[in-house]
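Q: Convert this sequence to structure tokens.
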Amino acid sequence: MSENTTETIIGALVIALAAGFLFFATEATGIAPKKDSYELTASFRSADGISVGTEVRLAGVKIGTVTRLELNPRTFRAEAAVSIPNAVEIPEDSAILVSQDGLLGGNYIEILPGGAPFNLEPGTEIEDTQGSVSLISLMMKLVSGDQEQ
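A:
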């Protein structure tokens, strides 16, 4: 075997290994939407602590992940897309909010189910949203004695 052939074979193996690792990483982290899931969108005033791959929970159980997060330049709101398994049907009057895992924990997306008889269709936007609450601003209000909300 010549030197060029050996280098070509090793290069091809490195590329195949990198592609396999990339596929594994997207599947393991939940960044890639799963085939047996659907996407819902929501618009938040503040999405501090949320990024692609963040957990989506319902009743404290992880049911999905954030698949897209971007700024809407017209409304200056954070537009998020979440992937939900087909087996989990979300009522159309449900709320979605940015919650925090304890005092020092990370943020996650929480879905609060409503009681409507109809469910959200794939691609639907959840209208009832609540962005993240800044712990620093709450503490500043407490220290300053500000009664205004």
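The chain has two domains: 1-30, 37-143.
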